[in-house]
Amino acid sequence: MPLGIRIFLVYVLFVGLTGYFVLSTVMEEIRPGVRQSTEETLVDTANLMAEILRDDFKAGTLNQNRWPELLKAYGERQPAASIWGLPKNQVNHRIYVTDAKGIVVLDSSGTALGQDYSRWNDVYLTLRGQYGARSTRSIADDPGSSVMHVGAPIRDNGQIIGVVTVAKPNSSLQPYVDRTERRLLWYGAGLIGLGLLFGAALSWWLSRALRRLTGYAQAISEGRRAQLPHYRGGELEQLATAVEHMRTQLEGKAYVERYVHTLTHELKSPLAAIRGAAELLQGEMPAAQQQRFVSNIDSESARMQQLIERLLNLAQVEQRQGLEARVPVPLAALVEELLCAQQARIERKQLRVDLQIPADLNVMGEPFLLRQALANLLENALDFSPVEGVLRFSAERHGDQLAFKVFNQAEPIPEYALPRLSERFYSLPRPDSGRKSTGLGLNFVEEVVKLHGGGMHIGNVPGGVEVTLQLP
Predict the structure, then answer these.
(1) 322: helix, coil or strand?
(2) How far apart are the two ends of the chain, measured CA to CA in Å?
């Protein structure tokens, strides 16, 4: 399972469990919280009614005054109120008064007059100077029919002579509880959803960053060029720096070892030739033969120098992971400059040069590397072109790519050699001398083209050989 998905699943589990426990805890506290607030209001109301009714209760005139009519009218009122969007069209308080023996002497509902309420906690505890309250179901089997009752004492000179009870059904509070629970669920679900989106974005970003770093490591392990991912601070930047440092150390060691083996292998032949010629020169020989061995030493020394220089250039290009500069380079002007540098060889072979490159055509890249690569191509074409042969340079634009072609009149390249022409140290004998080159020129060209994000193709065409470079 990908790391990003595992991180996201752990995040989902954490957010889900946290959201569940928080929501469940808050949901469990909503109903008791609403009832506590309501009970506090009932306490105030009961004590207020105890003070209002005290004088009439002492005088025994509760039922003779207008209290029954007032309480009945109160019960029939329709407030037509809107409490935070919820309508309230009736009052829900029931008020009843009991004497010192717990007998109901006044009831706003008119249903309990004369009944003995002395055993109900609201009356029983209040008559004994304690806080009297109870919650009783109107219907035994229906938990939603419970009614809260809160009693307050009626005092005469500090003596409790009666009790006023204010009752309110819990069902009247249910709409507010339900609305609060719905809002809490919606808000909770929204916050959890936002948290999950944030977690998904974080997991995607982290896994993407790790994928980029993994892709970089895989590309390097496969010998491909890749750009080191850039991160802004934090552990990812430290990890990327550490990976790059490790790559540099490992590649440097392996690179040096490979090139030392290659260089020693390639230098064996010219060194053996130089040593053999030097040994022969120590003896007596004709001047002409002596001059021939001196020439051999000179040519083999030049060959070693060329080999070392090209190896250094190739090593420099192979070690680079990107271009130091990417600027427009006028292609026609660059080719003309290279042709001028090789004008002596061109005239000596009496070659006909055909330049078919628009003057305003530019290639995006690093000028120094492009000049070296095209110089190698031109040198290679001159080596294989016959006397009075044709050299043709052409270029055309295809979208955001440029196809640069170098054609030289020559014998077809053998089929077995075509796939190997850009291999390091692979070379075909030159027609003029029959000797092979260092075999590094085309390999250098290919590395430069890859560094620019392009490709190289070599093939036989009617009348000769054509090299095509695809460049940005």
Answers:
(1) coil
(2) 39
Helix, strand counts (H, E) of the chain? 10, 14
Average pLDDT over residues 278-294: 75
Name the pTM for this structure: 0.44
CA angle, 393 then 397 then 402, to 5°: 70
Contact 321, 225 (CB under 8 A): yes
Question: What φ, ψ does residue 169 adopt, rounded to 5°?
Answer: -70, 140
Q: Say whether 451 sits in a helix, a strand or coil.
A: helix
Smallest Cα–Cα separation from 181: which of 388, 20, 27?
A: 27
Q: Is the dihedral of CA 312, 318, 324, 327 positive or negative?
A: positive
Tell me the average pLDDT across 2-28: 74
Q: How far is it between the farthest Cα atoms of the chain?
A: 160
What is each CA distance from 71 to 95, 148, 181, 327, in whole angstroms? 8, 19, 34, 95
Give the tens place of pLDDT for each residue, 201-239: 877 777 777 777 777 777 766 666 666 676 766 666 677
The residue type of 189 is A
CB 62 within 8 A of CB 54: no
Rounded to an integer, what distance in angstroms lies between the CA atom of residue 28 and that of residue 91? 27
Give tens-digit pLDDT for 69-124.
887 777 777 777 777 677 777 778 889 999 999 999 988 888 888 899 999 999 99
**Distance between CA atoms of residues 329 and 464, nearest Å:** 28
Domains and CATH numbers, the chain: 3-178 (3.30.450.20), 252-319 (1.10.287.130), 327-471 (3.30.565.10)
